């Protein structure tokens, strides 16, 4: 058991994968579960930044329609304001 789905329900520790997945929402300790889910936000943001730097090219739309205008400057319309 990894404990990732652990939740406090009416003062008892439950596991969604074993005891759930549905619980009475009024009896769930939301403060506890919210704290647990947010405790690695800094690490998740760091990890996401590393992934983005390595995979930025996957985030760019390089479909032929867009690729043509990216490599041919004549097709690009630039507005220069001075
Ligand atoms: S204990 Fe790991 S998913 Fe439930």
Rg, rounded, reads 24 Å
Gross morphology? elongated
What level of helicity do the residues show? Answer: 40-55%
Based on helices, strands and strand pairing, what is the structural class? Answer: mainly alpha
Outline the low-pLDDT stretches: none
Strand order of the largest sheet: 1-2
How many individual helices? 4
Rounded average pLDDT: 83
Distinct ligand kinds: FE2/S2 (inorganic) cluster
SSE succession: EEHHHH
Strand fraction equals 5-15%
CA(first)-CA(last) distance: 63 Å
Number of strands: 2
Major sheet, described briefly?
2 strands, antiparallel
Oligomer: single chain
Plain-language structure description:
This protein has about 80 residues and is mainly α. The chain has a domain at about 5-60. The protein contains four helices and two strands, in the order E-E-H-H-H-H. A two-stranded antiparallel ribbon has the order 1-2. A hairpin with a 2-residue loop joins strand 1 and strand 2 (about 10-15). The chain is elongated. The structure holds FE2/S2 (inorganic) cluster. The site of FE2/S2 (inorganic) cluster has 8 residues, from helix 1.
